[in-house]
Design a protein that fits this description.
This protein has six helices and eight strands, in the order H-H-E-H-E-E-E-E-E-E-E-H-H-H. It has about 210 residues and is of the alpha+beta class. It has a domain of about 120 residues: Roll (SH3 type barrels), CATH 2.30.30.30. Strand 6 and strand 7 form a beta hairpin. The termini are far apart. The relative contact order is 0.09.
């Protein structure tokens, strides 16, 4: 048996769809079941067959309900009784509908193999529900309840006081030192240090000249 490799290339996907064998085309013609049929048979969808009653859910013919008269597996379309249109020449033809746009409201169970499929799916769903219930029961047991003795109010207050951190000692406010008063100097006082600074290098120069002469 040849194994088909997986691919996400659109052209290859279309090629596989249009060249698919009959047993795979049959699965592509599936349609969802109505909520009542889902509860009865425990499945969400089934391939449409001639004789099923379907309800159109989307498109221009939305809301039309009728019985499937024919299925075209080559074009992936179904034809419903009463869903027709008139041609220019006056003749009437069936309007093709894609199976994904309809919902099955009544099943044709004349085929015993179809009944077996539904029974198998229903049993599989029931078994899965039983397994889920068992797994929920096997979960962790509830933890044993521990009795908590209530302490008197006085003991509680003492425990709370022990847990609290010791209060920080109140810091005494520091005395601020008085800022030194700045006295404005007069113009004469400011000129004195400048005159002294200029006179010092002259004296040094004279002393150095005397040492050279001696």
């Amino acid at each position: 048996m040849q194994v088909v490799a997986k691919t996400s290339k659109p052209s290859k996907q279309r090629k596989r769809l249009f060249q698919a064998p009959d047993h795979i085309r049959y699965k592509h013609l599936a349609a969802p079941l109505s909520p009542e049929l889902r509860k009865t048979y425990g499945t969400r969808s089934l391939p449409v067959r001639a004789g099923d009653t379907v309800l159109v859910m989307r498109g221009d013919r939305k809301g039309f309900e009728g019985k499937v008269s024919r299925i075209d597996r080559k074009k992936f379309r179904i034809y419903i009784e009463g869903l027709t249109r008139e041609r220019v020449d006056g003749t009437t033809v069936f309007v093709p509908v894609h199976p994904s746009k309809v919902m099955i409201t009544k099943l044709n169970l004349d085929d015993k193999w179809r009944r077996k499929i539904l029974e198998r799916r229903r049993k599989a769903k029931e078994a899965a529900e039983v397994v889920e219930k068992v797994e929920e029961k096997v979960e962790k047991p509830p933890e044993a309840l521990v009795k908590v003795e209530e302490k008197p109010v006085e003991e509680k207050a003492a425990v709370v006081a022990e847990r609290l951190p010791p209060a920080a000692e109140e810091e005494k406010p520091k005395r601020r030192r008085a800022a030194k008063k700045t006295v404005k100097k007069t113009a004469e006082e400011e000129a004195k240090p400048k005159a002294e600074a200029k006179a010092k290098p002259r004296r040094r120069r004279k002393a150095s000249e005397e040492s050279r002469v001696g």
